[in-house]
Write a structure and sequence with these properties.
single chain, about 325 residues, alpha/beta, Rossmann fold, 4-stranded parallel sheet, about 45% helix, globular
């Protein structure tokens, strides 16, 4: 295991609860002035996970959008909160969005380990949350998510979530090793397809990305009930090496749960194996973070099954070199 896991990702996953414990202390000094007519979180890859999690977890009274693009939504103006998230601080798409947000005089908050984003925030006199370095962006979910909850609380955009954060940290101490090993063994040589409700799209999306980046293999995701209006037909003639994972939350809408149950049988009848996971736990944040942590472990153990270093992202880095530095 040590020969494959060269950068000791297993330690990062085992200590995710400690990351969250540390992260909950960040961002407590930042207050964004009201009024706010909408919130946009700009980020890519693992840095956008924070936006996906916040979108699933929180009930906002204003529009909330995750922007995985160079360009902001057209509706952004001077009363919009634009959160620019880039773990490295150098991701070109959110940096481009930062410039547009500044031109529109939006209310900007940056979060990164440093880099150009920190410099731009200092220049613009925008609040900046500096998080610890030394992680892959996809493994920094705690550092990129919990400080933003603090900012939103401080700014009276959401209610206080301190108790739910503490509950989530406690839930993250539970071991996922054996369950993840078992799931990874089932997924070896398969193409995972992960389904969740639209409400909890963040879970299906993060599972898919963790399998892609950690295990270096193909995976896809979709959400109920959209997939019942198109993708369902693919099971008439499915690829033979699919493996479907359906993730149900205890608070999913009843009609969504019924769709999931019917879909499970339909997929199994087509000859494709299905793993049905039911999330439990007191708080929604605990269920979300525990589930994405399990997905991280699954990606990790599937990497070991594939003989791949779970941390290395060679193709991604080579692609960025070929792309070159953007012209300002």
């Amino acid at each position: 295991m040590a020969n494959v896991d060269k950068e000791n990702m297993i330690s990062v996953l085992d200590n995710f609860w400690k990351q969250c414990e540390d992260a909950q202390r960040l961002g407590k000094n930042i207050v964004v002035g009201l009024p706010i007519n909408g919130i946009v979180l700009c980020g890519m890859g693992g840095s956008a996970f924070a936006g996906a999690i916040l979108h699933s977890y929180l009930d906002f009274s204003v529009p909330f959008e995750v922007c995985r693009s160079y360009f902001l939504p057209k509706w952004v103006d001077h009363n919009t909160l634009v959160i620019v998230a880039s773990y490295s601080g150098n991701t070109e798409e959110p940096l481009a969005a930062f410039k547009e947000a500044r031109a529109k005089k939006a209310k900007i908050v940056g979060i990164a380990k440093g880099g150009k984003l920190e410099e731009m925030c200092i220049q613009a006199k925008a609040p900046f949350i500096k998080v610890p370095s030394g992680l892959q962006p996809r493994d920094a979910m705690g550092y990129l998510t919990l400080p933003l909850i603090n900012v939103l609380q401080n700014s009276r955009i959401i209610k206080d979530k301190t108790g739910e954060i503490e509950d989530a940290i406690g839930a993250l101490k539970k071991s996922h090793h054996e369950n993840a090993k078992d799931i990874a063994a089932k997924l070896k040589g398969k193409i995972p397809v992960i389904y969740s409700s639209q409400k909890l799209e963040c879970i299906a999306r993060i599972w898919k990305c963790k399998i892609n980046e950690n295990a270096k293999t193909t995976a896809f995701f979709n959400v109920f009930s959209e997939l019942n209006h198109n993708e369902i037909e693919s099971y008439i003639n499915p690829a033979k090496n699919l493996f479907v994972i359906i993730i149900e939350d205890k608070n999913d809408f009843d009609r969504i749960k019924k769709r999931m149950a019917i879909m499970k049988k339909l997929v199994q009848d087509s000859g494709i194996p299905v793993l049905y996971i039911k999330l439990s736990g007191d708080s929604l944040l605990a269920r979300i973070l525990s589930s994405v942590l399990l997905g991280s472990y699954v990606g990790y153990y599937l990497a070991l099954e594939n003989g791949a270093d779970p941390t290395e992202v060679e193709i991604l880095e080579n692609f960025k070199k070929q792309l070159g530095t953007p012209i300002n």
